[in-house]
């Protein structure tokens, strides 16, 4: 019985993760986060330029895909980024913590419906915490 409940919750979590991280709204949030917050923060700017520079622009839309891959423990993606820099996961964790703060402020400042804003904040915070937990799992194993 417990295994069935766990499996259903795990399935819902994966669905929620994929649903939220591949939504157009999240891609727009990532763009705004980069333009409004990262470009003026040397650490965040260097993170995006180091890992997501695509020859002529920073491909911020790659971040949601990387987050999904980290959550799914995609070893090919993890190896690619950790080969670029062994501190990738540590740096990513910091970026996600900054992103979480940005998302909270964004939805508070742009909410027409307070209840909906709280749901959005709670959903994104939950998902980002799950990815951070995966990063910590990877770092400790």
Description of the structure:
- It is a single chain.
- This protein has 141 residues and is mainly alpha-helical.
- The protein is built from 7 helices and no strands.
- It has helices at 2-21, 24-38, 42-52, 62-71, 75-84, 88-109, 114-140.
- The longest helix has 27 residues, at 114-140.
- Mean pLDDT is 84; it is low at 1-12.
List the helices and strands and how they pair.
Layout: H1 2-21, H2 24-38, H3 42-52, H4 62-71, H5 75-84, H6 88-109, H7 114-140
Helix pairs in contact: 2-6, 4-7, 6-7
Features:
single chain, 141 residues, mainly alpha, 7 helices, disordered N terminus
Q: Total strand count, please?
A: 0
Taken as a percent bin, the fraction of beta residues is under 5%
Rounded mean pLDDT is 84
> Structural class from helices and strands?
mainly alpha
Shape verdict: globular
Summarize the structure.
Helices cover 82% and strands 0% of the residues. With 141 residues, it is mainly alpha-helical. The longest helix has 27 residues.
């Amino acid at each position: 019985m417990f295994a069935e409940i766990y499996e259903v919750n795990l399935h819902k979590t994966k669905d929620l993760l994929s649903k939220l991280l591949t939504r157009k709204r999240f891609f727009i949030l990532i763009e705004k986060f980069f333009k409004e917050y990262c470009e003026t923060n040397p650490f965040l700017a260097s993170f995006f330029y180091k890992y997501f520079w695509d020859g002529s622009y920073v491909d911020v839309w790659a971040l949601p895909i990387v987050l999904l891959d980290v959550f799914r423990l995609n070893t090919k993606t993890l190896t690619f980024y950790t080969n670029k820099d062994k501190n990738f996961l540590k740096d990513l964790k910091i970026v996600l913590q900054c992103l979480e703060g940005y998302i909270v402020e964004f939805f508070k400042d742009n909410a027409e419906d307070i209840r909906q804003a709280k749901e959005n904040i709670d959903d994104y915070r939950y998902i980002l915490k799950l990815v951070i937990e995966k990063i910590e799992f990877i770092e400790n194993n």
